[in-house]
Amino acid sequence: LLFQILGAVILGFGIWILADKTSFIAVLQMSSPSLKTGAYIFIGVGALTMLMGFLGCLGAVNEIRCLLGLYFTCLMVILITQVAAGLVAYFQKETLKEELSRIVGSLIEKYDPMNDDERNLKDAWDYVQTQIACCGWTGAKDWENNEILANQSMTAYPCSCSNSSKDFHVDSGFCNLDVPVNGTATYADWPVHEQGCMDGVEKWLKDNLGVILGVCTGVAVIELLGMILSISLCKNIHSEDYTKVPKS
């Protein structure tokens, strides 16, 4: 039962990644095929874990050694894969950070409130900037690369970055800046948050690192207990009795 619940949790996490349209996960999922592939992997692992839980229960109740062996093998493969994925993510964190910078940089550069084809992606990024109270990836300066703002001599700014009370009811698109005498401006003239979203995302990860590690450790412990239990049951079954296999 524990493994079926665990499988349902993993399956649900993968579905959430695909369905989420309003968080930073949505920005990555819509911009990077690798995260979408990862979501499908979560769904597959979750479904496999639920199936293995069912087979493990069937093998234990009916004392079917081959099912218990299959259960042990699949759990071992899943555990090794999870550990390997964690190690790759840890040692490739700088590469991942560069990839995130590239994805968000491209999004900011091409951001166009009038382009309905990428509205979900724009809305997701606006939501991130509003909720984290940040602007750009490393800072508001990133928005100087936006083609529309550059054409307007930087006399407009992203509304979702605003720290001004008059813009609180606007959370998308561009807001007009009080035009300076010379008719041009820079990001330093904008009433926006100084913090970049990279710092906000890193802070969120650090604040929730204990929870993330706790969940990962709990999953690994449950899988190890399942492997130990299945191998113990296998040893206690002295001979295979195929008459105990349920007939369809």
UniProtKB/TrEMBL annotation:
Belongs to the tetraspanin (TM4SF) family. Keywords: Membrane, Transmembrane, Transmembrane helix. The chain crosses the membrane at residues 6-28, 40-61, 67-91, 211-233. Its main location: membrane. The keyword Membrane applies. It comes from the Eukaryota. It is a multi-pass membrane protein. One of its GO terms (cellular component) is plasma membrane. InterPro entries: Tetraspanin/Peripherin, Tetraspanin_animals, Tetraspanin_CS, Tetraspanin_EC2_sf. Coiled coil: none annotated. The keyword Transmembrane helix applies. This is Tetraspanin.
